């Protein structure tokens, strides 16, 4: 795994071999998607009840029908992105320690460093993964292709204020990245679905439904994360 900074974000790039080892399927996804990269936005790009979170992680996958992410961008639902929100906490998140400690090596655009210990993407997903938002949209950075199936988890993870500060030290070619999130976009008649199982009922989901553009589905869509070889040879159900 390689950690690098770009003009838009901080990215963890998988090697070609690692991309073949990590994938996601089911969960109402039409096929198998292979993980290409993980990247971060400080200041979340999604909001829930108008609340913006401290950090947002995107796990970007391309459909295995296509040879690469770049090729998959040309096709409807060619890309599947998992969005994970992080809330500010008093305590450090130990899972982020290796990344945070490596940030000083990538403070300028196009700087990169090898992560000493490859980690499982599951470590950066919430334990509660059966409740999530689903919609069809675009990438949030150029070329902003309209080819993405979005899955944004309701449950957020912690990150400390001291850990967040390290992200703000990263500079782009034109100065500090600052808040590198895209502003909230119009729905343009898109539908946003909230997925939960029948046992949950409205309960915790009811406060998330603020207008007619969000639709609640009482059905379990089980997402399967496949991680093999160096990551563990297991199928993970969300």
TrEMBL record:
It catalyses: hydrogencarbonate + H(+) = CO2 + H2O. Keywords: Lyase, Metal-binding, Signal, Zinc. One of its GO terms (molecular function) is zinc ion binding. GO terms for cellular component: cytoplasm. Residues 1-196 form the Alpha-carbonic anhydrase domain. PROSITE patterns: ALPHA_CA_1, ALPHA_CA_2. InterPro entries: CA_dom, CA_dom_sf, Carbonic_anhydrase_a-class, Carbonic_anhydrase_a-class_CS. Its EC number is 4.2.1.1. Its cofactor is Zn(2+). Residues 1-18 form the signal peptide. Pfam families: Carb_anhydrase (PF00194). SUPFAM superfamilies: Carbonic anhydrase. Belongs to the alpha-carbonic anhydrase family. Reversible hydration of carbon dioxide. This is Carbonic anhydrase. The lineage of its organism: Eukaryota, Metazoa, Ecdysozoa, Arthropoda, Hexapoda.
């Amino acid at each position: 795994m390689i950690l690098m900074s770009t003009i838009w974000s901080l990215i963890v790039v998988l090697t070609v071999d690692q991309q073949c080892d990590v994938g996601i399927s089911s969960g109402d996804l039409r096929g198998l998607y292979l993980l290409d990269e993980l990247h971060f936005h400080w200041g979340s790009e999604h909001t829930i009840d108008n609340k913006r979170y401290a950090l947002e992680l995107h796990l970007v996958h391309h459909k295995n029908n296509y040879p690469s992410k770049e090729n998959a961008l040309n096709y409807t639902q060619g890309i599947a992105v998992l969005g994970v929100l992080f809330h500010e906490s008093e305590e450090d998140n130990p899972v982020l320690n290796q990344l945070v400690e490596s940030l000083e090596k990538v403070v300028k655009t196009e700087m990169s460093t090898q992560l000493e210990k490859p980690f499982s993407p599951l470590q950066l997903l919430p334990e509660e993964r059966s409740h999530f938002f689903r919609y069809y949209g675009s990438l949030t950075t150029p070329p902003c292709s309209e080819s993405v199936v979005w899955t944004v988890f309701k449950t957020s993870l912690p990150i400390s204020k001291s850990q967040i500060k390290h992200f703000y030290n990263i500079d782009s070619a034109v100065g500090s990245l600052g808040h590198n999130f895209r502003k909230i976009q119009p729905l343009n008649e898109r539908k946003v679905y909230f997925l939960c199982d029948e046992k949950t009922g409205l309960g915790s989901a009811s406060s998330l439904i603020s207008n007619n553009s969000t639709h609640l589905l009482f059905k379990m869509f089980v997402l399967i994360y496949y991680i093999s070889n160096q990551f563990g040879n297991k199928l993970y159900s969300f």
